[in-house]
Amino acid sequence: MKDNFNLKKTILYECHIKLKAKMTPYSGFLMPLQYTSSLKEHMSVRNSVGIFDVSHMGKFLLKGKESQKLLQYLTTNDISKITYGQAQYSCFVNHLGGIIDDLIIYKISEVEFLLIVNASNIEKNKKWIYKNIKNKENLKFLDLSQRDSILSIQGPNSLKSIQKFTNISLDKIPFYHFVIGKFAGVDEVLISRTGYTGSKGFELYIHNKYAENIWNEILKIKTNSFKVIPCGIASRDSLRLEMGYRLYGQDISESITPIEAGLSWITKLEKKFIAREILKEQKKEGKYKKFLSFVIEEKGKIPRKGFLLKDKNNFVVGNVTSGSFSPILKKGIGLGYLNDSEKNSYFVSIRGKNIPIRIVKLPFVKI
Questions:
Q1: pLDDT tens digits, one per residue of 101-120
Q2: What does CATH list as the number for 13-52+147-242?
Q3: Strand 50-53 to strand 229-230: parallel, antiparallel, or no bridges (unpaired)?
């Protein structure tokens, strides 16, 4: 395989090569697509446990007495509603209400926040934050993206897999909460009860110099009933799609508002933030393209990004933004947008044939 010198690598790149991972360009990085098969890795996470290297994600630290005030203004969710040791899913929006990025915010203290952003948007997010910092004396912004790694251990056996590495009672960490403590002999590891798969799991935020050793130690875990296997971005994508999690650059972008994207639940219109009035008006009027999730009952038909959605009269009424085969449902599933607000029968165009779709509520799979 020819190396691409324009692509970044995580600190675990050589580990992936030794494991014979198939590498692929992703968000400006060379990342493992799969190690064995995406289906095997997907099912391991749903039924047992798998580990992902997600160190490509952006990691920002915002410190200072003005930090919460700034985040409250820049993000759509209400950061004042969470306390220390809690995480929150939110998004940055521009002045027109378009989604600059979706992110997870970890509240370390009243004046310190860790922001996890998409790898492809690291520089854009940095510029946006700097642009909106009014009083630099009361704020300190650090980009830790190249310093720290993130390991994601996902699946019903995730807790059993890593509990022996720490004295922290991992079963006591609620969903979307975290603890900072010792893990595998390393101090100040942030252990978070989060993930992008929908299955039970944990994410570890660690300094790069400890990442390889911890990755290898976790991969040694093997019992009579399960073992930890490495998983790539192909299975991560199919896992997130079964839950209906949006993917930036496909399902959400600066041309889509959180109202349109079905993310009203993280859009707190009662608080003041950028573009609040625009989003408030959009929601009130109801005149916007509608996010939808659907299943294809016909066997062997899989929707893909860019496929057209049509009505019963063969008019194009929308498009698919994400689509795949669900290993759990054993059916094609997809996300997309409709420009047609009428109640109607819809189809997805696959190789010139209109295939009926059934609109369903998310998640596709209940874990």
A1: 999 999 999 999 999 999 99
A2: 3.30.1360.120
A3: parallel
